Fold:
Amino acid sequence: MKKLLLLLAMVIPALAFAGEAPKLDTGDTAWMMVSTAFVLLMTPAGLALFYAGMTRSKNSLNTYSMVVGAFVVAMIVWVVAGYSIAFGTSESATIQNFFGGFSNLMLSGIKYTDLSGTYPTYVFVAFQGTFAAITVAIAAGAIIERIKFSTWIVIVILWGLVVYAPIAHMVWGGDGAYLFDEGALDFAGGTVVHMNGGLAGLVLAILVGKRANYPKIAIKPMSVMLTALGAAILWFGWYGFNAGSAFGANAIAGLALLTTTIATAAAGITWMVIEWISYKKPTLLGLASGIVAGLVAITPAAGFVGVGGAIIIGVVGSLIGFFGVVGLKKMFGYDDSLDAFGIHFLAGLWGALAVPFFALQDKDTLWDGPLKASIEAGKAADVIGQFIVQLKSVALVGAWTLVGTVVVYFIAAVVTGGGRVDSETEEIGLDESVHGERSFYL
Structure:
């Protein structure tokens, strides 16, 4: 347990440089700026294409607009108040458990020369802002083709403040933040980003209701090629997401880059093989879905595990994602349009719970995990104890997301006069009805 926390300390600047004056490192600064650009690319390009390609052509531009709209709005919300709630400080220790406070509204109190570890705090603000933006954008995939665009924008504003920022604080907020103090491990966002955004999507999908005639009519993707391109861009950007979460150009970043690649490849192969066995046809859509499931699953563990752990996490994450998309959705009958819950929440949940069993017991050991080492040393309770901490983390994040998203939706629906478009708008398609545009003019 202590060694895991020490490994965590290596990637948290506030801890890694405790006791000595921070000094700017140009290599770390350059890497964090590049990582921020990588993660930025994931939303208005990668996720937007991934989602838009799976949507019917009459709603493809609306889907793209929901993702990009969420990104630009969420970034402003983050700078105005989100960052302060997530990483600011409060005079009350009780409040500090769950909220960072309002000490850094509009980034007040932060100078451009201030450092977070070895790179400028402003870069840290921008880097974390891209995480906040993609998290709410993930939820859009569950509710496309029937929610009002105005309602969605209000949801983005409120959700970033009420749901995302407090969760980011509890997990990543440093000393005084509840789950951080408990020792919860989330390297790059399995709970904060993927569980959070995926569950929010499911909650919103249930509250908004199913699409007209779902599932009686076939709803076919506009362009699987666009979805595959989106998945490829997501994979590229994910190196900033995971390797960037090492907060420097260091060995942990290299480890995260490797495990991200391996887990993703293993997950893509797994989904492809499952379809080949089940349907006799391996689809490109399935391969793209497996890739994203692998990326999600390895995210909370990328800097903590070795090669063997990465492969297992990727394979199981793909199996769980496949079950969520093909089995669970049919079993319960909810309309998660683009499987935000099935892939992001379920694979993120698996990755978060898998961390104790595959995390590196020693930073110089790049295979096996603490389970074998702990059993040999007669300390299996260390792994079980960390697993209990992880359970507490996913339970609290799930409860906060569930309640917060319900509250946010009803406020947004009241403000915009109802959350769902009318039946005529839905039938015509939101591209033309809402935006006055069409993806193709024939």
About this structure: The chain has 18 helices and two strands.
